[in-house]
Design a protein that fits this description.
single chain, 329 residues, mainly alpha, two-stranded antiparallel ribbon, 13 helices, 2 strands, globular, binds Phenylacetyl coenzyme A
């Protein structure tokens, strides 16, 4: 009797993919997937990975000027976590058949994006508090649903990343709380940082739903679970009461509790600012890419050494298995 497996047609493979997504199961790297799904994931995961490593810059700027040894150690750990998040995410992207060197080239050539938020300058120590509290706070709201993304490697990477982001948000809150309850000058520093980081953080969630070309398909595929506006609203609802605990105000006079809809109403968002930033015209776009390319070039010898070590290690592993095969033979 013939035992060969029947050839599955593309339609059957697609039906199986749709079934897995509908049943809230995970798609794994070896599973069949539509080309558009693969491309969308590569685009989003690469953008996410790039954001993590570019996001090290505004905080890296303050490592040498942290006000105490303890604050410096905490900030250093946070920035190192961000490098780690970049590595998990580049690895997740590689499971889709791309090479991280190719993704980095695209970032350096401006062919792939990173989050708009990192194109704002970090002008003072209080900015470390505002970045942790607001930017990591926004990142958590955006990323917790990605722990349920239909693509397994991305979802799993996000579980650990979210745990670390919670610590990051907490450390930012702690910096701001200390400053806000310090001297009048310290309170002003905290308020000034929050004034500057609030709107960019609100914009981080992306364009409004009626101008978000990727959302509908990404939600259908279970890559995104909620729309940009829904996540933005959740972030605002979560953050306003925290600002009250901090004793700081948010720079939006129209931010009031809306009884009827049971959420905060807010003032108009300056979408032109976001679109200009995404196009490359934000306050620090050129500086961020310049710095990244310089760091990449200066780190070339590390990659060469790591590749040489891997090649040597690979040879040794081959030699060892060869020897053991000989022994077995
Ligand atoms: N900045 O159709 P949509 C962090 C682009 S990690 C720049 O709505 P989509 C940790 C978008 O790519 C922060 N570009 O797109 C940390 C698309 O362009 P394309 C990063 C943006 O993908 C904290 C076009 O606009 N997080 O903060 C932005 O469905 C502190 C149309 O938009 C992630 O990447 C923007 N803000 O939704 C590190 C999370 N928004 O590609 C250091 C994962 C939109 O078609 C310190 N990503 N665009 O040419 C996502 O959830 C989604 O990709 C969105 C965008 C929500 C960002």
């Amino acid at each position: 009797m013939q035992q060969t497996q029947p050839e599955q047609h593309e339609q059957e493979l697609e039906a199986e993919f749709e079934r897995l997504v509908a049943d809230d199961q995970r798609i794994e790297p070896r599973d069949w997937m539509p080309e558009g799904y693969r491309k969308t994931l590569i685009r989003q995961i690469a953008q996410h990975a790039h954001s993590e490593i570019i996001g090290m810059q505004p905080e890296g700027n303050w490592l040498t000027r942290a006000p105490s040894l303890q604050r410096k150690a905490i900030l250093l750990a946070k920035v190192q976590d961000e490098a780690g998040h970049g590595l998990y995410l580049y690895s997740a992207a590689e499971t889709l058949g791309v090479d991280r060197a190719e993704l980095l080239d695209k970032l350096h050539q401006g062919k792939q994006k990173y989050s708009s938020i990192f194109n704002y300058p970090s002008l003072g120590w209080a900015d470390m508090g505002a970045i942790g509290w607001l930017v990591d706070g926004a990142a958590i709201v955006n990323q917790i649903p990605i722990t349920r993304c239909s693509y397994g490697p991305y979802a799993r990477a996000m579980v650990r990343i979210c745990k670390e982001e919670s610590f990051h948000q907490r450390q930012g809150f702690d910096i701001l709380y200390t400053l806000s309850h310090g001297t009048e000058a310290q309170h002003q520093m905290a308020q000034d940082a929050v004034n500057r980081w609030w709107w960019p953080s609100v914009m981080m969630f992306g364009p409004p739903d009626d101008d978000s070309p990727n959302s509908a398909q990404s939600m259908k595929w279970g890559i995104k679970r909620f729309s940009n506006d829904e996540l933005r609203r959740r972030f605002i609802d979560m953050t306003v009461p925290q600002a009250e605990v901090l004793g700081l105000s948010l720079p939006d006079p129209e931010l009031v509790w809306d009884e009827e809809n049971e959420r905060y109403a807010h003032g108009p968002i300056d979408w032109d600012e976001l679109y200009e930033n995404i196009k490359g015209n934000g306050p620090c776009n050129a500086e961020r890419i310049e710095h990244r390319v310089r760091a990449h070039e200066q780190g070339g010898w590390v990659r060469e050494a790591a590749n040489a070590y891997a090649a040597k290690h690979g040879d040794q592993a081959g030699a060892t298995s060869g020897q053991s095969q000989e022994r077995v033979a």
